[in-house]
Amino acid sequence: MKLPYAESYKIKMVETIKKSTREERERWIKEARYNLFNLRSDQVFIDLLTDSGTGAMSDKQWSEIMLGDESYAGASSYYKMKEAIKEICGFDYFLPTHQGRAAENVLFSVLVKEGDLVPGNSHFDTTKGHIELRKATAVDCTIDEAFDTTNYHPFKGNININKLEDVLKKVPSEKITFIVVTVTCNSSGGQPVSMQNLREIREVADKYGKLVLFDSARFAENAYFIKKRGKGYEDKTIREIVKEMFSYADVMTMSCKKDAIVNMGGFIGFRNEELFNKAVVYNILFEGYVTYGGMSGRDMNALAQGLKEGTEFDYLESRIEQVAYLGKKLTDYGVPLILPYGGHAIFVDALRFLPNIPREEFPAQVLPIELYIEGGVRGVEIGALMADRDPVTRENRFPELELMRMAIPRRVYTNNHMDHVAVALANVYERRNKIKRGVKIIKEAPILRHFTVELDRI
Ligand code: F0G
Question: Can you list the domains of the chain with their CATH numbers?
Fold first, then answer.
C-alpha cells in the first residue's frame, strides 16, 4: 500500500477551542449582523476564515523570536531576513513591511498613477483596492477555464497571453507600468500559475517594456503544484522551482502571513536599485525605517526561518494534501467545489450549491452563515460582497464566481477537524432546498465593504 501523507511535524503545544450549541450560534451570528468577521474567535469552533497569519510557528521559529535584534537601524534580524530572501527568492534588495497590503501600498505609491491600467490574473482584493484607491484600473486577464468550476485545468491561475497582449496593444504605453501575477491565484481558487505561463508573461513584458510583479503570498504552494503537475519539474526541488519562478519577475510583494508561516509580516523584493530607492521614501513614511519597516526584529527572525520551512517539500506535501483531504471528503458528499482543489483552501461553488438564491441576495454569504450555524465553522464569502461596487457607477459588481472559501491554517488543525467541517457542510447541502432567501445589506463601506458590512436575512 502507498503510505498516506502524514504530517512532517508533531505537536508540542496545544490551544483549547470551544464547542457551542446551535442556539448560541444562531444568536451570535444575528448579533454579528450576519457578517462572520464580527464574530468573536471564541464563538468559532474551527476557524477557516483565512490561512493568513493563522499558522502555527515551529520550535525553531519561536527560538528565533528570542534571538531578535530590536535595533532601530542595521539590526542583525534585518540581515537574516535579507539573506533568506536572497537565498530563496533571489532578490538583491528588499524592504520589510508589516504585511502584504502594506507592501502594495508602498510599491504602488511609486508605480501606479491616476488613469493607469494594471493587467494581471484575478487581483486579490487589497491589490485591487490599492489600484482603485489611486484611480487606476485592474484588468483581469485570467484564462477563461478558471471561471468554469468543473473544468479540471492544472494551472487555473494562468494569464491568457492573448488577453494580456490585447490590453498592452490597445492602451497607450505610459498607462501600463507593470503586470501583476498572483502565485498562487487566491481569487480564482488558490490555483497555480504554470512555469510556461510565467515564462510567456516575461516574454510579453519584455516585448512591451513592462515590469512583472509577483504577488507572492503563496509562492511555495505554487512551486509545489509546478512540481506535481508541470512536465519536467518532477525531479526538481521546491527551492529550484522557486528560483526559476522568481527569475521571471522584476519585483515581488509578499504577505509573509501565508507561506512564510508567521503571524505578521511582509516585504517587497526588488532587482532594480533605482526602483528600490524610490520605494524607500514611501517605506520610511508609511512603514518604518529601511531596516525594520513595520516589523519587530524578532518577527523578522521568525520570518526568515519560516521562509525556509515553508519551501520544504515534506511540509508542503502534508499541507496541500490536507486541503485535498477535505476536498475529497466534500466531493464524496456531492458538494460542488472548484476543481482542482486549491493550495490553501477549498472553494465551494455557491451558485451550484444554492441555485435558488438570486445573486442580489448574496448566495456566497448565505453559505458561510449556514455552515457556521451548522457546525461552528467559519468560512468566508468570495463573491459579490467582496467584489465591492463599481467605483464609477456604484452598482453592485457580480464577479464570474460566487464562492465560499474555507482556508486551512498551516500546521494548525488535524484531519479530524477536516472531518467535522466536511460533515457540517454536507448537512447544509442536504437541507439546501429549504434555504430559499438570502441576505440584504443594511450598512456598507464604500471600499472593501465585506469586512464591515451589516446584513439581515430577507
Ligand atoms: N495578496 C494575496 C494573494 C493575498 O491573499 C493577500 C491576503 C494579500 C496580497 C494581502 O496581504 O493580508 O498580509 O495584507 N490575503 C488574506 C486572505 C487576507 O485571507 O486570503 P496581507
Answer: 22-51+313-457 (3.90.1150.10), 59-310 (3.40.640.10)
